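Possible regression after last week's pipeline update?

I re-ran a chain I had predicted before the update to compare outputs. Posting the input and the new output here so someone can diff against the archived version. Not blocking, just want to make sure nothing changed silently.
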Amino acid sequence: MLTDIEIARNTKMKPISEIASTLGVTDEELIPYGRYKAKIDDGFEKRMADKPDGKLILVTAINPTPAGEGKTTTTIGLGQAMAKIGKSAIIALREPSLGPVFGVKGGAAGGGYSQVLPMEDINLHFTGDFHAITSANNLLSAMIDNHIQQGNVLGIDQRRILFQRVLDMNDRALRNVIIGLGAKADGVPRQDKFSITVASEVMAILCLASSIKDLKERLGNILVAYTYSGEPVYAKDVGAHGAMAALLKDALKPNLVQTTENTPAIIHGGPFANIAHGCNSVRATKLALKLADYAITEAGFGADLGAEKFLDIKCRAAGLAPSCVVLVATVRALKYNGGVAKADLKEENLEALAKGACNLEAHIDNLAKFGIPVVVAINRFATDTSRELEFIEQICRERGASFALSEVFANGGDGGVELANEVVKACEKPSSFKYLYPDEMSIKEKIETVAREIYGADSVKFDDKALKNIDSIMKVNPEFGKFPICVAKTQYSLSDNPKLLGRPTGFDLTVREVKVSAGAGFIVVLTGEIMTMPGLPKEPAALKIDVDENGNITGLF
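New output (post-update):
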């Protein structure tokens, strides 16, 4: 059996100019980054502005497990399958972060015969977008500290600096650091911390900005610190936003690549879904809607995180309305939720499947609250038995959700034809898309609504620090209270406790800190033990990644 990287290497890619020409992108509107990847210039978006939008399809999943769910693979395979049934489709995905690539995943470009290519480039430096975001973020941090060093005219209280440095790598040693040590010329000593780049507000801003003008305005509105007298300090106050926008001007342009079956794919932006809003850029999604009759995008992690944020944050900010949601589930993952160890998931176990199926039921029920048709993609593994598959199908019938088996990992687009047909039918059904909560609801009420309606919590417990944070946010600007919320929570459970699998009940959600991302336009809610700088596992994927004397990379899977 071929590995993902072997399948990718054996695929005959088309020149990116040929892929672009099928979409109507001219050579003048294409900015090549080598033979097989490119950026699309702003002029093309302006030229396409009056073209009607296609239908938007969101792909999400049940809560992730070590068994694997295959959400990105399903997204790519569905796009390929649309072409098999004669439909015009394009895929819009996030860019992988180097942290997970070298940490746990070892790659995040799909799998089997449903991948985006060139997978080595996409998984590593790609077109440099993440490096630009890291540089822009850290330029702002440098300018804050330099302002203090050079006389501190604004009176910034170094004990109340909110903005953090970032790095696109899992590095737990940087969670808490002391900077400015040494001589007087080396800066003012203070405690600081790093987050991973994909948790940066700059990343969120890039993914929500509609233009360079909007980008610069959002960057200027980043709340970075407070003064000694308690007044807010924004990025524009230290004069950083113009230079930051200059670093990001090319990163703001969406990237064009292709799949293993030469289906066009736009890959742009990559905020984490457990600590950010987990969606590719608004510009990429809006461009995809102009380029094809069906734009297929995904949201990170489970539907309780990625889908909820896509629908309540991204759709609200960009005026988007999906026609259908695809919910990916596997027999293996549901048996894991039912208490089966990873090593035993190959064995038929209807009892465990019945116990773990409540996780699927919860996500179907939750998505129905947004008023969008749901199609469950049952991502089939070779070890799944007919009785197990029939059990999941019956669950879907009982919940009123359409369903289809998907074998896109093994068979590419051919393995997703059944799913593609169900999705097309779902897109024709009446849809009454609505947000989970209104803008006018208070910050506390929004948190309580998501906790109750999506996670299934009995109540929310706010730490004193969180309550003080909310009061401080509202005092700075009452308009911040109208922002949607972005909950940072474990991806492994509907609750804030990663050990509570299935569909937990009788628990409280604990909110320990609340922050405002004023530039991005949402309120960040930290729950449980979630951290914005992940660490590497005991045996990181980096141990298996290598390059031979001919420049061929191995170990990405």
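Follow-up from reviewer: compared with the archived run. The first helix runs from residue 4 to 10. Marking as no regression found.
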